[in-house]
Amino acid sequence: MSNDHHLNTSTSSLQGRLFSFGAVTDVQYADCDNGQNFHKTKWRYYRNSINLLSEAILFWNKRDQRVSFVLQLGDIVDGVNRRTKASQSALNETVAVLDKLSAPCYHTVGNHDLYNFTRTELAHSRLFSLTPDKSLQQDTNSSQIGMNGADLWWETNRFYYSFEPAAGFKFIALDCYDISMLGHDDPHTADFIKAEKFLKSNRPLGEDDLNSPEGMYGLERRFVKYNGAVGKKQLQWLQHELRGAAENGQRVVVFGHIPMFAGSADDQAICWNYADVLGVMHQFDCIVMYLCGHDHPGGFSTDSHGIHHYTFPGVIESLPGSNAFGTFDVYSDRMELEGMGDVPSKVVHF
Length: 350
Known about the structure:
Layout: E1 19-24, E2 35-36, E3 43-44, H1 49-62, E4 69-72, H2 80-83, H3 87-98, E5 105-107, H4 111-116, H5 119-124, H6 126-129, H7 149-156, E6 161-166, E7 169-173, H8 190-201, H9 232-247, E8 251-255, H10 274-281, E9 287-292, E10 299-302, E11 308-311, E12 324-330, E13 334-341, E14 346-349
Parallel strand pairs: 1-4, 4-5, 7-8, 8-9, 9-11
Antiparallel strand pairs: 1-12, 2-3, 6-7, 10-11, 12-13, 13-14
């Protein structure tokens, strides 16, 4: 496995390290031959992606500075599985690999997950029932709840939550497909109709191919079907979580599948209502970073409020012999990212 961007932790002082965590995204596993992306510019190595996930887990399990948890940033299986009627078997195979991880794994929803399963099906799946229950909050007025993780997902179909891995730190997971045409088995539901209306009203050609950005320019290009938005209730919840973190003097990492800042990804891959999300995030100075996937080449940028936006490269397009995952060592004043393969190492100060 190529690690040209490897951070030499033997020369980087580990004194004062508080905890470590891993991150990986867009595995998009399918038991099928290699294929190309929509634009025919990149190859996707469907069958090999699960091997790369296995390599990442082996690395985390053997690392001297063990990870406290791993963030899986969405698209664990590819949409091609739906066409071959292999959605469940593909998910079973990837979950079996994740079971080998010696630390908790926190998940977020991606578009390919919703190509394969409805939101209700995902809520019942082992992927989300394995999310540690201590991280879940039922609403903005409650603290930790008694029901297990599976029961909460089944009750609410809600895929946003928070957890506190160490004193002084909070991690917040966003559901970037809260408003989306994906993941609904009935196109007549209020949620589907709301999302369809929102999308079409923001497209200059309205009724054309909803997955195509043709005829749109700049950030207009984000109004495609494979993106989504964060709903009003979730935004209120996010504001509540951030206010609590600020009052408690916590540092915050927010994560989701879709990028929120144009400088960190292609315009076509940005969240529909990114401005609303940033509007809430920018009310507080406690956020260190927003982590996401979706745009496979990856990217990094810092916005005007000092929030670092890191779009992780996707595993699915990693060349044979390479990979795409990273490990963050967290200190009181910085995070040191040890990147592997397509993920460059980086030190982020805060």
